[in-house]
Task: structure prediction
Amino acid sequence: MHRTLTPQQRKIVRLLSLGCTVVEAGRILGIAASTVDNHKFRAMRLLGIRKIAILTRYAMLNGISNLEDCLTLEELERMRGSRR
Result:
């Protein structure tokens, strides 16, 4: 049975699959780390996944992320707290 992630969950799964921490993902998305953690928890529960490595594999197999994907310059600036 295919379960659908919300758009916000997909964004968070992508960032986590690229190696971002919950804090970094929160900075990029402009939300609290606790909110990222809640979305991560709900997505993993929905998918029946218990490990981040498996979540990364899910992201790659389902087109959320791929081997060539990386953070955009804007995402990197947000993560580092840079402002233009």
About this structure: The domain at 7-72 is CATH 1.10.10.10 (Arc Repressor Mutant, subunit A). The radius of gyration is 12 Å.
